[in-house]
Write a structure and sequence with these properties.
The chain is α/β, with parallel strands linked by helices. The chain is built from 16 helices and 17 strands.
Length: about 375
């Protein structure tokens, strides 16, 4: 089992939302824009203005991770990514190997030469959105790459000198069978992966899938098949040396996602770009999901934030407990309460009930999900929140 230490109080992460896509996937509900150079230059200007505006918050803090997400951040270009990293290095000096710098990439964009340029720019971890290695399912999802191109993308990224490679895989897809799923899990065995994130399809509002849900829902795997897919993934990935360290995340020892682990352990982070979220000093806030309005506010030295909530301490504490329980290493209760405050009597009663029902296990000071709790995490979450 992988062990993950508690984050240092001074640690922070940075997230840059790069919303450009060649085409929006049919299941995607994120803010995206067409792949156009004038828009990219506009976003780069916005990034710089927002960086200068938020820099005072980062003084005296230790940088843990930088994450370029989207969208398809690899469309932004190595030169622009290099400029962003140059601002950060100038104002918050860091050694690239000492922090995790991730770039999300779509397989159709990942050539050997491009990935070499990104490695030279300072990217040391790549997350490839493969989703599936079944050609028909890729077409159904609206993805632009083939199974062969996905495999090439992993191999070329590795050859470019980026050894920390993560891929995304999806299950619970329309017309996806256990046989399809097993074939994908078998194929990835030969790939030089250090990490894998697992997602089951959720049909979100404001997506093409949502508009077509009446046709799609009868084609989804039933609950028994879905559970079998998840259990098969755990078994096959473990055999490959990718150990489950979180409900949906698997990694080789030493390669768990430091950035995502920050989300699960309440590390503060600042988000840059239109629609980007931040979590800072007990507040959650989000920038406006409009590139033009985002940049216009910053040019006037105004905040681009259009949503903010001060989290209720009691509710926030319960939410953090539920999120941290996703980690295989569990929650050290004493340390958790020292950092976030005491759990209330109702929560403690719920914990005891879930232990009695076989969803949670407590050994010494450590509270963890049981195998049953992992499989029925939503039940645990509902009970505790």
């Amino acid at each position: 089992m992988l062990t993950i230490g508690n984050p240092q109080q001074s640690e922070v992460s940075l997230y840059f939302h790069i919303p450009f896509c060649t085409r929006k996937c049919e299941y995607c509900h994120f803010y995206v824009l067409p792949d156009q150079n004038p828009l990219k230059q506009q976003l780069l200007e916005g990034f710089e203005l927002e960086w200068r505006r938020l820099l005072p918050l980062l003084q005296g803090r230790e940088l843990a991770t930088i994450y370029f997400g989207g969208g398809t951040p690899s469309l932004f270009g190595p030169d622009r990514i290099s400029k962003v990293l140059e601002w950060i290095r100038t104002d918050l000096p860091f050694q690239s190997p000492s922090i995790e710098v991730t770039l999300e990439v779509n397989p159709e964009n990942a050539s050997l030469d491009l990935m070499r340029e990104y490695a030279q720019a300072g990217i040391n971890r790549v997350s490839l959105g493969i989703q599936t290695l079944d050609a028909d399912l890729l077409t159904l999802l609206g993805r632009l790459h083939s199974p062969h191109r996905a495999i090439q993308a992993v191999e070329e990224t590795y050859r470019a000198g980026i050894a920390n490679i993560s891929i995304d895989l999806m299950y619970d897809l329309p017309r996806q069978s256990l046989k399809h799923w097993e074939a994908t899990l078998h194929t990835i065995q030969a790939l030089p992966l250090s990490h894998l994130s697992l997602y089951n399809l959720t049909i979100e509002p404001h997506t093409l899938f949502f508009k077509k849900q009446q046709q799609l829902r009868p084609l989804l795997p039933d609950e028994e098949t879905s559970l079998a897919m998840y259990e098969m993934a755990i078994e096959k990935l473990t055999e490959q040396g990718l150990l489950q360290y979180e409900i949906s995340a698997f990694a080789k020892p030493g390669f768990y996602s430091r950035h995502n682990t920050g989300y699960w352990t309440a590390r503060p982070f600042l988000g840059f770009g239109p629609s980007a979220f931040s979590y800072w000093q007990g507040k959650r806030f989000q920038n406006i999901a409009h590139l033009g309005k985002y940049c216009a506010a910053l040019r006037l030295d105004k905040s681009p934030v259009d949503f903010e909530e001060q989290l209720d301490p009691e509710a926030h504490r319960q939410e953090l407990l539920v999120i941290q329980l996703r980690l295989s290493c569990g929650v050290q209760i004493h340390e958790f309460q020292k950092r976030h405050g005491l759990l209330n009597a109702e929560t403690k009663t719920s914990i005891e009930r879930l232990i009695h029902q076989g969803f949670l296990h407590k050994q010494a000071d450590c509270l963890k999900l049981t195998k049953k709790g992992v499989l029925f995490y939503d039940t645990v979450a509902t009970e505790l929140i």
